[in-house]
């Protein structure tokens, strides 16, 4: 009789442990405290990308188009949002809000996953000529409203009138980054592409 009780207790314990492991693998949620001044955040490993077809939040006279792209990378699909910026209309200090798609494999807070909004501010957009090429030097400030007081800066130098793409990686947390790609379509239109993803796809 005692052996049945022991076996029952062991089976219940095994079932609870397996149930907990299964739930952990399904949701893949854990707590991280990176700074004692910040509260604990709930992080999740993304298995379903989040995006919007029209990623720009608000109306801006210098944005002349926007959208979302899907690129097949073999066993994964990369989702990215893009904006077309009219360089003749943008001024230093102009900013805009964009919904940056969060791709599979990203580890991110649930609050950012549900609302991955990025605030981009143009701090410098100077044009100069060197060795016969015309360059655009762009400095941006990135604010993630989901992360209080988190501000990042990044810069890119783009050759105008050449289809050479420049990619910047802006660290969000651990192995997850905001990728910002810059491509000058011509001397007056700049394409900026945004997506959140892991270090490697």
Automatic annotation (TrEMBL):
Domain of life: Archaea
Protein name per the record: Uncharacterized protein
Organism: Sulfurisphaera tokodaii
High-level lineage: Archaea, Thermoproteota, Thermoprotei, Sulfolobales, Sulfolobaceae
């Amino acid at each position: 009789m005692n052996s049945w009780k022991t076996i029952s207790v062991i089976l219940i314990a095994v079932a609870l442990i397996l149930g907990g492991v299964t739930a952990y693998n399904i949701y893949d949620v854990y707590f991280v405290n990176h700074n004692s001044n910040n509260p604990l955040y709930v992080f999740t490993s993304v298995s379903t990308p989040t995006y919007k077809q029209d990623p720009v939040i608000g109306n801006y006279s210098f944005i002349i188009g926007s959208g979302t792209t899907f690129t097949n990378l073999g066993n994964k699909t990369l989702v990215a949002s893009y904006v077309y910026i009219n360089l003749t209309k943008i001024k230093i200090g102009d900013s805009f809000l964009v919904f940056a798609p969060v791709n599979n494999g990203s580890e991110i807070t649930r609050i950012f996953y549900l609302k991955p909004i990025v605030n981009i501010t143009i701090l410098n957009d100077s044009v100069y000529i060197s060795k016969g090429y015309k360059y655009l030097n762009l400095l941006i400030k990135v604010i993630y409203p989901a992360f209080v007081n988190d501000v990042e800066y990044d810069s890119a130098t783009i050759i105008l009138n050449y289809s050479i793409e420049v990619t910047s990686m802006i660290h969000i947390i651990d192995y997850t980054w905001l990728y910002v790609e810059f491509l000058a379509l011509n001397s007056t239109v700049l394409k900026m592409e945004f997506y959140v993803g892991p270090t490697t796809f």
